[in-house]
Amino acid sequence: MQLKQVELAAQILLCLAVGQTLGAHIPCQEPSDAELQSMLSRHLAPGVGLLAPTEAVLPGQALKSCPVNVSQTSSRLQDVSTSPWAYRVNEDPRRYPRRMVEAYCLCEGCLIDQKEDRSVRSEPFYQEVPVLQKSGQCEAGQYVYQPSLLQVAQFCICSFP
Fold first, then answer.
1. DSSP one-letter string for 69-130
2. By the 8 A CB rule, do 59 and 100 touch?
3. How confident is the model over 14-68, as pLDDT tens digits?
4. Would you call 34 helix, strand, or coil by DSSP?
């Protein structure tokens, strides 16, 4: 009789241990960059890429300020514009792509006749860019990313108030 009770107790303990193992939480993993790129490319029009790659645009190490006048020697559009701009990196670990380059205006006004004219405004020009946002849900052991549109400043323009 005692042997049967010991066997029964052992079987119950074994069932509990197996049940806990089967119900153990499997940690959710990030999809690979290749998988995320493939998901994102499904939301882009054929032949259309994202913004300029971060390697093609050199963001400043520090925020720049409004120049005294328009550069006459630079070959970069952002330097010769009457509404000059610079680039910075926008980083978000819950988004793909995680790093994006965005423009910011260097002046409040626009550079006219070798000085800043504040009767016109320097404003960023935005473009909607498809991105993937991490949802926090986990399916088949991977985090789920949802398509979304993000407004990203591309350059700056002069506008009249």
1. S--SS--SHHHHSSS-EEEEEEE-TTEESSEEEEEEES-SSEEETTEEETTSEEEEEEEEEE
2. no
3. 544 444 444 556 789 999 989 998 888 887 666 555 554 545 555 665 667 888 7
4. helix
CA 70-85-80 angle, 5° bins: 30
Instruction: Say which residue, 153 or 46, is predicted with more confidence.
Output: 153
Count the Cβ atoms, other than its own, within 10 Å of residue 73: 6
Of 73, 125, 75, 81, the C-alpha closest to 104 is 125
> Of the CATH numbers 3.30.565.10, 3.30.530.20, 2.10.90.10, 3.30.950.10, which one belongs to the domain with range 26-159?
2.10.90.10
- Which pLDDT score is estimated for 25? 61
